[in-house]
Specification:
Strand content: 5-15%
Structural class: alpha/beta
CATH architecture of the largest domain: 3-Layer(aba) Sandwich
Largest sheet: 5 strands, parallel
Number of helices: 19
Number of strands: 5
Distance between the termini: 37 Å
CATH class of the largest domain: Alpha Beta
CATH topology of the largest domain: Rossmann fold
CATH superfamily of the largest domain: P-loop containing nucleotide triphosphate hydrolases
Number of domains: 3
Helix content: 40-55%
Strand order of the largest sheet: 2-3-4-1-5
Amino acid sequence: MEGSSFIDLRAPLRRDFTAFFLERNPFPTIGVPEDAPLITVDREKIIEQFQNVVFEALESGRSILTVMVGEYGCGKSHLLKVFRQNVNSQLLSRQNGTIAGYVKSPGEEFRDFVLAFIDDIGRDVLNGIASEMVRESLKENSNLETYVFSSELREETRRGVLSLDDILPRSRYLDFVDEVLKPKFEGLRNYDVVRAFLSLPNPEFSSLGWRWLSGANLSRSDKSRLGVTSSIQSDNAYEVFLDFMGMLKQIGITNFAILVDELEKITILHRTKRDRYQDDLRQLIDDNPGNVIFYFAIAPRQWEDLTKEPTALVRRLSGNWYILEEFDEEDTKELVQRYLHTARPDNYSGKTAKKRYPELDPSLCPFSEGSIDTIRELTKGVVSRILLLCKKSLDQLYDSKDAYDFVSSKLVQEVYTQSGQ
């Protein structure tokens, strides 16, 4: 293909930042937090507060509710993901363990909330927990010949030689689930939750089990194969969520951290939907007076709108809230330093950088101190805006090497004006 409309995508533009002691531009193109955040700046008080909430909840057994109020882009989502990551990496176990789920957006109804929570915990985590249970029960079962077909397979099962992928397709698995595992989950109202969960380790049913937990409407034949009669719908979502939590509690995961982002989304729902959703959230709080950490994030204006009407939910939320402040100059400087550090070559030396850029702080190179002040002033300390302006300024420095030696206040201002940020 030839002509003026031809766009050559075989040799993409590659900016070489090695002259600035960087292997790449470390700043994200959009200020969306990573699923596993690596960088956190100046949130020591907020993190300490979360630690205290966790300690108090685990020690007292009482549920605790907190609302984090902050402007868009100031780092609410980032912090919630940091909280989620640390809970699940340090406290998730089957011995009085704690599990955290991040709800990116409450959606339009409580069913959206339930599916977001289950999806965030994830198929791999749930499959791992279910696999542990199944493996333990197979080893402990004295009547294994009833469920596992051959004597050789039974012996290898007891010795733990074979994987579940080898064992389960050659067994009466659904009968094993009903007769051996079901009694472990007495008191649940919807046993379909358990059946879908325990189907995850079996390659024959794993996909169907996860589809059920993901809210898919299974065909009649698929429901029959899985042994379920229901699906997660608007009218049973609340019951399913309580049973999901109850199931994990009976496994040994007794504490929950429910981290809900963008609570403001419920303020724009139609009045009928909004009232029902608020009532579901209020009921969730009331039905779980112990062992749950509720953490909500919302923007300031919407927090004002929500709290104007003294609903039952608002009365529960308004007892413990705080404002997430924007970054000041020192916070902004530290944020830039930490992102730059992630892209430094292994042999980076402050002395070498000082020789080439004597006027710059080596930890900020190629940004000047003045550029950091300008970035803070123009972005008003909103984290996502800081990162985006740094990204564009560094790209512009490369593209304008003849005009600029480093990222100066003038370059930042030029980029800001051009981009209309």
